[in-house]
Amino acid sequence: MSVTSTVIGYPYIGANREWKRTVEAYWKKTLTEERFEESMKALRLANIQKQIDAKVDIVTVGDFTYYDRVLDVAAMFGMVPKRYNWDGKEVDLDTYYSIARGNKESVSSEMTKWFNTNYHYIVPEYDRSSLRLYENNPLKAYLEAKEELGVSGKPTMIGPITFYKLTKELKKGDQPAYMSQLISLYTQVLKELVAEDVEWIQLEEPILATSISEKDMELAIMVYKQFSEIVPEAKILLQTYFESVDHYEAVIDLPVAGIGLDFVHGYQENLANLKKWGFPEEKVLVAGIINGRDIWCTPLEKQFDLLIELESLVGRGKLWIQPSCSLMHVPVTVNSESTLPEPLKNNLAFADEKLKELSILRNALCEGSHAYQEVFNHNKSSIDDLNNHPSRKLRNVHEAIAQVNEGDFNRTSSYEVRKAIQQKSLQLPLFPTTTIGSFPQTPEVKKARSQMRKGEISSEDYREFIKLEIKKWIDYQEKLGLDVLVHGEFERTDMVEYFGEKLDGFAFTENAWVVSYGSRCVKPPIIYGDVQWIMPMTVSETVYAQSLTKKPVKGMLTGPITILNWSFVRNDIPRKEVANQIALAIRKEVQFLEGEGIRIIQVDEPALREGLPLKINKQASYLEWAINAFKLATSQVADETQIHTHMCYCEFNDFIEPIRKLDADVISIETSRSHGEIIEAFKHYEYKNDIGLGVYDIHSPRIPQLNEMKAIIDDSLEVLSAQQCWINPDCGLKTRKTEETLAALERMIDTTKTFRERYKTSM
Ligand SMILES: CN1c2c(nc(N)[nH]c2=O)NC[C@@H]1CNc1ccc(C(=O)N[C@@H](CCC(=O)N[C@@H](CCC(=O)N[C@@H](CCC(=O)O)C(=O)O)C(=O)O)C(=O)O)cc1
Ligand SMILES: N[C@@H](CCS)C(=O)O
Ligand SMILES: [Zn+2]
């Protein structure tokens, strides 16, 4: 028996986030372009070396990026939006980073979630320019790895159908011209690769694992047919991941040499289809067998048995194995962790450990499982140890869940009744202004936290420092004239990690970073036991902030679904159960805040949309339990207490109905980076509750123009009433500098004043 191992991609950040530091140093101009390129090359090669050391049979190259791999394709083809006044000569680094981050003159391109992950890509924009191939990145990566490491890798890039479908809404009639340009560009890439004797070429088409239409599938058939006719020598490995493919028969019939299917997410559908329809003899099946989205050890024997079954279905020598998707969604190595509790640590597999598992499965398949029985047994007993651990059997948590009933999910009064009561008590002006929660995490804030961690300052000193920051920012907010204030979240490293550190059932890591967007990384906590509230998490900071001002201070919590979706979650019980456990813990915190006199509480759910299953037929059940978890956390408050929620980074146009069902008194929603498109959706939908308009993009260092914010508010007022609208930035301000934040907020308040003036008789 012979089996080949490969990977779809490996994390580019480096075990100690060297990639992030290099990119940020270049932005700060503390690194020259030459040094930057040198460091990036070293990192790129080190990552490939990791695959070589792990004895991956077919090493993947071209999975590295300077910011984002979707942007890379756009840059390869010279898709630079006109607003950057690009000279069309080459997409140099500064042009590339302007598209991603904006510059003094122009806003950045939109950024949105990469399928159902917490990674965000830059949305390509097609503006009818004529495109050409400026740089063949996969070829460059291939040649570099060959020259420097002597390895003939498998270059990868995002495939044409996925790239086309992720491009920002095309103008009517532009589709055929754009597609035909893409076909010739991809064809040229393929031709140049073939000319250099590249054997396998990976095209990533995760879009095929969503519920795509017949028409889109026909487009894929047409495009891949053209590739096979124009470059018949190209051995294309078409990769799908994150779910099963809907159009199985059509996908396996595409004229390519190999097809990657996910046998972790949506494995039942892929397996059932494989059994029903078979698999073409002339192709290889690349089975995603190790979960690339979680950090748990693979149940080796179970996956080995599945592989035996797959091999019997596709035939000898035709089966390759790989992780289910790029390993960029998991941290680099468990070896960097020294403080995790025992039964947990033995059950973790990050990217490097997953490569080891891949090697074990490959060897067991090649050599026969008998030599690996001991490894399998050891792996199974580790998993059993964690499953039977007392932290997973907390009686009070299970009893509390059992007691939840219908009444726990709904507010006492209707929205209309609540709005009148809240308005009377809060006395807010028309177009109330607020912010989303966090204020700048300055180097001083991060330094103080780091000193506290290292024991260089005491916890009391750290708390005092945080209080000073809160006071400073309450003063700023009062001076600016904001109506609803926040304490600023200075005590939080991250809106999920912070709660994970304070709730029972979570473990947190020292170095388990994954990229969230650009150079920004997150360190998701690990939910390994039953979750319960053990101590107030936000009360002292919020109450302190409220004591400094007469204006209402908004309590700031992360919602249960966002905590769930941005953590690595135990896999022994359904996610719905974990969500309800978290919801009960957040509910307790909500009640504490309310008990301390906090009249407005925001429960953020930016990841609600992200958790939506990619397949339409799986979405309704997720939405039902996810919305219920939010309501479980937020409904048991008095009518006077105003519940806010906040969402960002997603397409919400098709998400108004779920938003309505949350029944939050106010929702702040991203409206700036998608240039107000969400507002269009409200045209077709009657939405009564209040809405916070995110009037400027917080991701860009540039100060928003008055007329840009005005335009968003004007557009919104065409479909929403003035009495419904709040004015705020589109997300938290933790990544911004103090001066930028103050200047932007000042303009936001000035803009609001012009609208108050215009509508002053309507109060
Ligand atoms: C709102 N978003 C979030 C998402 N997911 C989350 N889990 N959290 C989110 O807020 N997804 C969607 C968006 C994505 N947005 C962001 C925005 C900003 C960041 C970000 O700023 N990340 C920071 C890391 C934050 C953090 O934890 N900082 C630590 C310091 C860590 C550190 O760098 N330490 C120093 C050494 C310190 C020492 O002890 O000496 C170092 O390692 O050098 C802290 O504040 O203490 C980032 O820089 O990437 C992420 C997602
Ligand atoms: N309250 C959070 C929400 C981010 S989505 C913040 O302001 O950072
Ligand atoms: Zn946000």
From TrEMBL:
<comment type="pathway">
    <text>Amino-acid biosynthesis; L-methionine biosynthesis via de novo pathway; L-methionine from L-homocysteine (MetE route): step 1/1.</text>
</comment>
<feature type="binding site">
    <location>
        <begin position="520"/>
        <end position="521"/>
    </location>
    <ligand>
        <name>5-methyltetrahydropteroyltri-L-glutamate</name>
    </ligand>
</feature>
<feature type="binding site">
    <location>
        <begin position="17"/>
        <end position="20"/>
    </location>
    <ligand>
        <name>5-methyltetrahydropteroyltri-L-glutamate</name>
    </ligand>
</feature>
<keyword id="KW-0808">Transferase</keyword>
<feature type="binding site">
    <location>
        <position position="670"/>
    </location>
    <ligand>
        <name>Zn(2+)</name>
    </ligand>
</feature>
<feature type="binding site">
    <location>
        <position position="604"/>
    </location>
    <ligand>
        <name>L-homocysteine</name>
    </ligand>
</feature>
<dbReference type="GO" id="GO:0009086">
    <property type="term" value="P:methionine biosynthetic process"/>
</dbReference>
<keyword id="KW-0479">Metal-binding</keyword>
<dbReference type="InterPro" id="IPR006276">
    <property type="entry name" value="Cobalamin-indep_Met_synthase"/>
</dbReference>
<feature type="binding site">
    <location>
        <position position="646"/>
    </location>
    <ligand>
        <name>Zn(2+)</name>
    </ligand>
</feature>
<protein>
    <recommendedName>
        <fullName>5-methyltetrahydropteroyltriglutamate--homocysteine methyltransferase</fullName>
        <ecNumber>2.1.1.14</ecNumber>
    </recommendedName>
</protein>
<dbReference type="InterPro" id="IPR013215">
    <property type="entry name" value="Cbl-indep_Met_Synth_N"/>
</dbReference>
<feature type="binding site">
    <location>
        <position position="118"/>
    </location>
    <ligand>
        <name>5-methyltetrahydropteroyltri-L-glutamate</name>
    </ligand>
</feature>
<dbReference type="InterPro" id="IPR038071">
    <property type="entry name" value="UROD/MetE-like_sf"/>
</dbReference>
<feature type="domain" description="Cobalamin-independent methionine synthase MetE N-terminal">
    <location>
        <begin position="5"/>
        <end position="312"/>
    </location>
</feature>
<keyword id="KW-0677">Repeat</keyword>
<feature type="binding site">
    <location>
        <position position="489"/>
    </location>
    <ligand>
        <name>L-methionine</name>
    </ligand>
</feature>
<dbReference type="GO" id="GO:0032259">
    <property type="term" value="P:methylation"/>
</dbReference>
<feature type="binding site">
    <location>
        <position position="646"/>
    </location>
    <ligand>
        <name>Zn(2+) 1</name>
    </ligand>
</feature>
<comment type="similarity">
    <text>Belongs to the vitamin-B12 independent methionine synthase family.</text>
</comment>
<feature type="binding site">
    <location>
        <position position="648"/>
    </location>
    <ligand>
        <name>Zn(2+) 1</name>
    </ligand>
</feature>
<dbReference type="InterPro" id="IPR002629">
    <property type="entry name" value="Met_Synth_C/arc"/>
</dbReference>
<feature type="binding site">
    <location>
        <position position="566"/>
    </location>
    <ligand>
        <name>5-methyltetrahydropteroyltri-L-glutamate</name>
    </ligand>
</feature>
<feature type="binding site">
    <location>
        <position position="113"/>
    </location>
    <ligand>
        <name>5-methyltetrahydropteroyltri-L-glutamate</name>
    </ligand>
</feature>
<feature type="binding site">
    <location>
        <position position="610"/>
    </location>
    <ligand>
        <name>5-methyltetrahydropteroyltri-L-glutamate</name>
    </ligand>
</feature>
<feature type="active site" description="Proton donor">
    <location>
        <position position="699"/>
    </location>
</feature>
<feature type="binding site">
    <location>
        <position position="648"/>
    </location>
    <ligand>
        <name>Zn(2+)</name>
    </ligand>
</feature>
<keyword id="KW-0862">Zinc</keyword>
<feature type="binding site">
    <location>
        <begin position="436"/>
        <end position="438"/>
    </location>
    <ligand>
        <name>L-methionine</name>
    </ligand>
</feature>
<feature type="binding site">
    <location>
        <position position="670"/>
    </location>
    <ligand>
        <name>Zn(2+) 1</name>
    </ligand>
</feature>
<feature type="binding site">
    <location>
        <position position="731"/>
    </location>
    <ligand>
        <name>Zn(2+) 1</name>
    </ligand>
</feature>
<feature type="binding site">
    <location>
        <begin position="436"/>
        <end position="438"/>
    </location>
    <ligand>
        <name>L-homocysteine</name>
    </ligand>
</feature>
<feature type="binding site">
    <location>
        <position position="604"/>
    </location>
    <ligand>
        <name>L-methionine</name>
    </ligand>
</feature>
<feature type="domain" description="Cobalamin-independent methionine synthase MetE C-terminal/archaeal">
    <location>
        <begin position="431"/>
        <end position="753"/>
    </location>
</feature>
<feature type="binding site">
    <location>
        <position position="20"/>
    </location>
    <ligand>
        <name>5-methyltetrahydropteroyltri-L-glutamate</name>
    </ligand>
</feature>
<keyword id="KW-0486">Methionine biosynthesis</keyword>
<keyword id="KW-0028">Amino-acid biosynthesis</keyword>
<keyword id="KW-0489">Methyltransferase</keyword>
<feature type="binding site">
    <location>
        <position position="731"/>
    </location>
    <ligand>
        <name>Zn(2+)</name>
    </ligand>
</feature>
<dbReference type="Pfam" id="PF08267">
    <property type="entry name" value="Meth_synt_1"/>
</dbReference>
<dbReference type="GO" id="GO:0008270">
    <property type="term" value="F:zinc ion binding"/>
</dbReference>
<comment type="function">
    <text>Catalyzes the transfer of a methyl group from 5-methyltetrahydrofolate to homocysteine resulting in methionine formation.</text>
</comment>
